[in-house]
Amino acid sequence: MNQDIELKTPSKLEKILKLGHMAVTSECGPPRGSDADLIKKKAEIIKDYVDAINITDNQTSVTRLCSLASCIHLKLMGLEPILQMVVRDRNRIALQSDILGAASFDIHNILCLSGDHQSFGDNPTAQNVFDIDSMQLIQTVRHMRDEGKFLGGDNIIRPPKMFVGAAANPFADPFEIRARRLAKKVKAGAEFIQTQCIYNVPKFKEWMKQVRDMGVHEKVFILAGVTPLKSAGMAKYMKNKVPGMDVPDEIVKRISGVPKEKQAEEGIKICIETIQELKEVEGVRGFHIMAIEWEEKVPEIVKGAGLYPRPKV
Amino acid sequence: MIVASKKPIEEIIQSVQGSKRLLIVGCNECVTVCEAGGKKEVGILASALRMYFMNQGKEMTIDEVTLERQCDKEYLEEIKHMVPNYDTILSLACGVGVQFMAEMYKDKPVLPGVNTTFMGATLERGVWGERCAGCGQCILAKTAAVCPVARCAKRLFNGPCGGSTKGKCEINPNTDCAWQLIIDRLKALGRLDDYDELMPIKDWSKDRAGGPRIVVREDIRL
Question: Which of A233, B32, B76, B135 lies in the 20 to 30 Å Cα band around B26?
């Protein structure tokens, strides 16, 4: 393994990826209240099984404890948070300000997102912001880090040192530009990618082939996203109700084919098998395990997929 | 055109409750085309209100007039002689007309009779769709003449979000995904490579964000 690597930030995730390890990240959703213990408990469960922990930013537009404060709680526990930041709720002033806020606590990873539309959340009558889009947020963080300047041009005293990530959904339409869209994010400055949950492995492989054909897999670390299914009901819900989610019929059939009390176990099995299969795909550099309100299963998945122990760097 | 929709009759009744002499003013422009505030709608609304207040046993004079436009002073002046006869004006023009009416007749309450909604076009009989958000700096040349500012729910500049499904927007299965339309047109024009170009961060100071806007043409001023 090449130890002579060039690191742009103090991020542990960056180091692990650049050392050539398969990275493992997971996510914790903050609580709908101000009890920090809830987020700390979730983090405690998974901390030894992942390299970094995403904190979602008012996911599905439901108001929650903020991502930044949650990341600070994790940082104070000595963990490695990934600050998720959506452009739905903040203009460029607030985004840059929150980036600096995170940097002041030495939060070294950021995931730049558009954010789910507010009509899905608990405040459907809210205004949205979308001053800049997710690609432009990637550019903004890179500009602040690499140039040491604000978007307005002034110098930043102690610029943020953040490893910059973005999301990719290989399954949304139009499929033909999904790999190009990834390339565009990389051009904007994305250094790692966490994908949408993968259930349709053949389609993901097709997307990865397009990504490799453009040589993009050599310019960015792609972490394949997986979410264990808890039940046949969840599989059907994901298939039919979640926009941009691709759950093939075979998966729904498979989990529906086992008795109810065994479905969760089957869901974990599918998840582990998916990881095993994706490990062999050229260009996949790690996994992002989104166990939605099911953090206690992350250790089992990581171990089952042969991704434990995590490297000490 | 500016597209508007009729306010619910209950809301209008509530707002004109205190009036004894009401003048309903229509507009011959956009709101006529989108059938929200033209001569026909003025007539229907006036009849409905007369009937309602008659049933309530309330005496109320309700008259009708429709102007060529309500966004030009010379047309608003046409009712100068009538206005003193009424205690309230109900304008069925867009929000521009309502305000311009109020600016001209300063001591007269002017109420809106429609909800002004967007700049759009007639998609089919009885259906209108938004096309322009008036952002002040047109980018249609770069987006194959499909506007992501007006037509993408997240006004994304660099491509479709992860919720674009079978050509439709994630927030409404009846709404086209603007970026699907852009990609389709770029393809049809043989310009799909244009998609790879990153769109610069937008200058919103030309938009509503920059405060109320004014356009001045020195060369044609009197």
Answer: B135
